[in-house]
Amino acid sequence: MVGYMEDHEIVIVGGGIVGLATAAALHKKGVRSLVLERSESLRATGTTISIFANGWRCLDQLGVGAKLRQKASLLKGTRDIMLYDNTIRDQPNGNIEQRCVRRRDLILALAEVLPPETVRFNSHVISVDDDPVTSYPVLHLADGGIVHAKVLIGCDGAHSLVSEKLGFRPAKYAGLVAFRGLTTFAEPHGFPKEFYRFRTGKGSFVGRTPVDDHVVAWFLARQKLPGDSEIIHDQTLMRDSTAKQVKELGIPEHIVEMIKNCDVETLNYTGVRYKAPWDLLLGNFRWGTTTVAGDSMHVMGPYLQQGGATGLEDAVVLGRCLSEGLVRVNVGERYGKEWRKGVERALDAYIKERRMRVFRLSSESYMFGAMAMASSKHVKLLMILAMMIIFGHRLSHTRYDCGKL
User: Fold this and answer.
1) pLDDT of 287 strictly over 60
2) pTM
């Protein structure tokens, strides 16, 4: 297929959670799309994603919520354990739904609702430009192929090529790295159905979340160390090093043992990145008939556990707006001036609906990260008070409803 050339109406770059969710949203509205995924198969690796009520509303709209609920326990709240002053703060969820879902389960559930051949693998997009005649997007692939799209949606993550096309500044490195993994217990583990977060006061965090009665997700977030490059490509070294560091932080021994006994193939290392809130407030989310969703638009730190759910919101809103905005015209006029104007109005409606939502979430996440890294207790207290005044209850953002498809 070297040197091939194709035309498609809607092309989505990236077959991760948001790319598949966007394709599913469009499919639910009777609109076909093509997803270009650079990997050889579905990227069903990784650990888990924490999803609150706002994300579950989206999954219900996409038709996969009921199935995923069967695979993830309902969590009652968060227990923050401050090791530096031996205090504990319980934060119940009340009537707000929260579950920790395996990334694999979510990816497979979204893929299953898509028509065959929606996702094309081994399709690595290396550049994007505009057709000199029509101004519609043109994608150049690593295998020499060229794909002409009438609508282009970038769901290609924090290092998004499509986001770069729109003129966005690259995501910034937050100075933290995260190690994540899953541990499977032969017998029910018996842990409370809560998110446990251990704060060391040294800029490091350790968390534990039950996925179901037998599987527990855990993480270590800390500042990057010089020796990280030596361990991140060896799963066994990464496991042993993480367990040792967690032990040195004074975390309870059962967490250390959990890491030692983890499913090595699930281990994951990532650098925490974010896009500055002011960039989201002022940035250009559309160029012609090109736009972005998910981390390509608003990658943020993990402090609010909203990255995945916010991307699901994007998918639902984009599917709704785009399906409503596609203009039905005569065959000979299809993709002409009126059709293009209808698409651009639809993308503008999507952007208008999402901009302040993602700006607010990114601002709250940014402030939470700054507060977590602050060394002074007085500064931490002032920032907590400021966040309460500006953003209200810590879970208020999870009550958001992006509407129906």
Assistant:
1) yes
2) 0.94
